[in-house]
UniProtKB/TrEMBL annotation:
<keyword id="KW-0012">Acyltransferase</keyword>
<dbReference type="Pfam" id="PF00583">
    <property type="entry name" value="Acetyltransf_1"/>
</dbReference>
<keyword id="KW-0808">Transferase</keyword>
<dbReference type="InterPro" id="IPR050832">
    <property type="entry name" value="Bact_Acetyltransf"/>
</dbReference>
<protein>
    <submittedName>
        <fullName>GNAT family N-acetyltransferase</fullName>
    </submittedName>
</protein>
<dbReference type="GO" id="GO:0016747">
    <property type="term" value="F:acyltransferase activity, transferring groups other than amino-acyl groups"/>
</dbReference>
<dbReference type="InterPro" id="IPR016181">
    <property type="entry name" value="Acyl_CoA_acyltransferase"/>
</dbReference>
<feature type="domain" description="N-acetyltransferase">
    <location>
        <begin position="123"/>
        <end position="265"/>
    </location>
</feature>
<dbReference type="InterPro" id="IPR000182">
    <property type="entry name" value="GNAT_dom"/>
</dbReference>
Length: 265
């Protein structure tokens, strides 16, 4: 779309960075694409960018072009173990604002000790794919509003899919629901990824906290995965979320990585 943005040299050839669409930039050297940048706006309004380049100089010039085009603040995420990527973003003026722990979650009830979990009085579990869609969407909106009013939805960076305004559930079949009599009060979303299922969200209405509903939901989900032959699931927890950390570590989940969110204001 835009003409030449910036140019540099990585050896014998000039590298030219061009904005090729509203959300994409290319770095070209000797008629070859040697790097790219992408931008995406998340449902909570934050603008995230990423850069894919083999050479640090190319990374820097793509980042410079994107920073010149896009309004601040800008966000990105990196694997905390990837020191080169983190350093590259820091060169561009980004600083760390939060950490998210990645957990390997066992499914065997002999490890999780969830096999004996009893449902709270009046609570039943609605298996994945069986929840009524309208009440499920209403519950999703309630818990999102409650999270936003407390810690803020920014503490859940897994929410990356672009969605039409007002739409929060992409695939209701992935949700297991806790129902208290005739009201939906808790949910957990499980994505059946090829390598390892991912627990993307577990939430309970504020007026139903401290009743063991989250543990009951996890007991159902992990028990179902274990019976299907799946040894472990994956989950991410913001390091500031003490309740979620205690919940997962209390069932034997172990930290297996971490992700950093960085911002340039």
């Amino acid at each position: 779309m835009n003409p030449l943005h910036s140019a540099s040299h990585t050896g014998n050839h000039e590298v030219v960075v061009t904005r090729v669409s509203d959300t994409q930039w290319h770095a070209v050297e000797d008629d070859r694409v040697v790097g790219s940048g992408d931008a995406s706006r998340r449902p909570d309004g934050r603008l995230f960018i990423s850069v894919d380049a083999w050479h640090g100089a190319v990374f820097d010039h793509i980042a410079d072009a994107m920073l010149a085009d896009l309004p601040a603040p800008l966000h990105t995420v990196v694997d905390e173990a990837d020191h080169d990527s983190r350093s590259a973003w820091e060169r561009a003026g980004f600083t760390t604002v939060r950490r998210e722990w990645g957990y390997l979650v066992p499914t065997d009830p002999r490890v999780t000790r969830l096999g004996s979990v009893r449902l709270p009085s009046g609570v039943t579990i609605v298996p994945a794919g069986e929840a009524e869609e309208d009440p499920l969407r209403a519950l999703d909106r309630v818990v999102r509003d409650e999270v936003e009013a407390a810690a803020g939805w920014r503490t859940m960076p897994a929410e990356v899919l672009p969605r039409p305004a007002g739409t929060t559930l992409v695939d209701p079949s992935k949700y297991v629901v806790a129902r208290h009599f005739d009201q939906y009060v808790g949910l957990v979303r499980v994505t059946p990824l090829p390598r390892r299922p991912r627990i993307g969200l577990i939430a309970v209405r504020a007026d139903s906290h401290r009743r063991g509903i989250a543990r009951a939901l996890l007991a159902h989900v992990l028990g179902s995965l274990h019976r299907s032959g799946t040894a472990s699931a994956w989950a991410e927890v913001d390091e500031s979320n003490a309740a979620a950390t205690a919940l997962f570590e209390g069932i034997g989940a172990r930290r297996a990585g971490s992700t950093l969110e960085l911002v340039r204001r």
